[in-house]
Every structure is written in structure tokens, then in C-alpha cells.
Amino acid sequence: MTTSDGSRTKSRARTGAEPDSETREVEITWAVLAALFQFRIATAEQLRRLTAPDAGIEKMRARLRRLREEGLAEELVLPQAGRQRAWFLTEHGARVASAFPELADIPAPRTPGDKSAFKYTLWHQLAVVRTHLVFLADARRRGDAYGPFDFIPEITHRFAEGREGTVRPDGLLYYSRTNADDARVTNLAFVEVDRGTMGGPRLAAKLNAYARYWATAPLPPGVWHGTIEAKGGGVPLWERRYVRFPRLLFVLTGTRQAGFAHRADDLELIARTRHVDKMLATVPARVAKLEDLEDEGPGSDVWWSIADLEAGPGTWWS
Q1: CB distance 311 to 305 below 8 Å
Q2: What end-to-end distance do the CA atoms of the chain give, in Å?
Q3: DSSP states of 13-42 as a string?
Q4: Is pTM, for the whole model, over 0.90?
């Protein structure tokens, strides 16, 4: 038996034969290019954990140097990070990776016009990669179906005119697991990552935007408000993409425990408003601290229900 929160299904060819070392190297290099296209930027260690967790870091660094020599990738030194380096695709590398059919739904990365300015704006994206990695490590440990490319960043969902009529989650997560009833379940989630740089009310406003998207149900062409035909309302806009509305996961970092609590309180406060409360009656929304996910795993009881923080922590899929 299989149930699903979404409409996307996958199949992977299985030959039963182990690839030789040369073929394996081509596969990993492809995965590195794809990861940099998908996530915009990543450190060598993050790329190792994404694409070759059983190999040493020096192999990944040598691989990245070869990509730099071929004009496909570049590096920059991260400020205040002990000379740690991060890697991103060149324009040539982005063109090469954009031809990969697996990346057809991924927006093309923006290449930095000014590397000096770029290195001060990339911390958020590195936190997004950190978030994806904790889900990936947990899935590998549990034997769940969640791979390096099951986190799709920055998909735009437009439901009204203007900037406020758009939601663009940091990631859309596809995670398949077997539940207690031995049913195969695919959980979809919109993931929002915040490093403590966005004010609490502004962060909470994102929850209101999701509620507006959830509630938007345009009438069919030619049907006008107030008519008998319009009495039943339109079909929710999100149903054009999803069988069920993805759950909402807010991942916070960059603050101490008190800062996390204040921001969670801001989310709960807006969750009590009429439109958001109506959405949360059917759409689970959770908040967790990234450091807790890294220490205990995202499948642990570290997620707090935004609709009711007093209920205590639980799993993200509960």
C-alpha cells in the first residue's frame, strides 16, 4: 500500500552491478555539478556529505580543483570562517548543468557579478544546505527514501499580483518512509530557514502568506462572483501542483534558546489569526532549531507545533 502527499513519483534503474571506479568518478562529478546548480553554493565538506559520504574530504577537494581547471566551478574564501572555502558554478558550469534532465524543474543559479559582495550574502544558502543534510543523514540512517536531489529550492508559487502575492520557500522536500502500519508514505514539506536575521514579525508574516496561497481558489473563466455558478467557489490554486498542501517546516538558527523561543512565539501568535488558524486545521506546521536537528536528527521529537507550542515537541511528520 502506498499513500502520498504529492503527485511526484520516482523510479530508479537497478542493474545489480557495481560500477567500476572510473564510472563511479563520473557519477560523483555529475552529482557535484548538479548539487552546485541546485543549491547555488556549498563547501567541499557539504558536497562530500551530499554526493560521496563514504569517501575522504581530500578526494572531494581534488575533484573540485579539476572542475575549476575545466572552467566549470570557482571558489571563494568565506569571511570569518578560518579560511574555509565555498564553491559555486561558473556561467559555463551552469550552462552545462542546465542540460541535465534531472534539473529541468530547478531554477538556474545566479552567478556572482562581484565575488567580494557575494561572499557576504551566501550564509543563508549554506544554512539551507545544512538543513537538507540533516534530513539526508537521517534518511540514510533510517533507510527512508530521500536522496541528495529530493530537496528542490526556491520554487515560486504565485497566487496574486505584486510581491505579497508570492510564496517562495527555501525548499520543497520530498521524503518517503514506511509508517507504523507498513504503508509507504511520501511527505511533502515547504521548508523555511532563518538565521535570526529576519525580525520575528516578518518571519511570522510568511505563515500568513502561506495561508493566503492555501485559501486562493480562483473561479473558472466566465464565472462571476455572486452568481449561482460561483456559489461553490473555485478549485484551490495549489491543487494544480499538489494532491495535498505540503506541510510547513520552519528551521531556525543563529540565536540562543531564548531567541528561538521568542521567534516561535511570534509564529504561534499569527497562527491564532482567523485565516492562518483555518489553514492549520488541515496543514501541519512545525518549528525546530537547526542545532537540535544536527544533534538529535530531524526524525526525533524536536519539532514544536506552531498551532500549539504548549503541546510539546514531536516528530515533523506527526
Answers
A1: yes
A2: 19
A3: ---SPPPPHHHHHHHHHHHHHHHHHHHS-E
A4: no
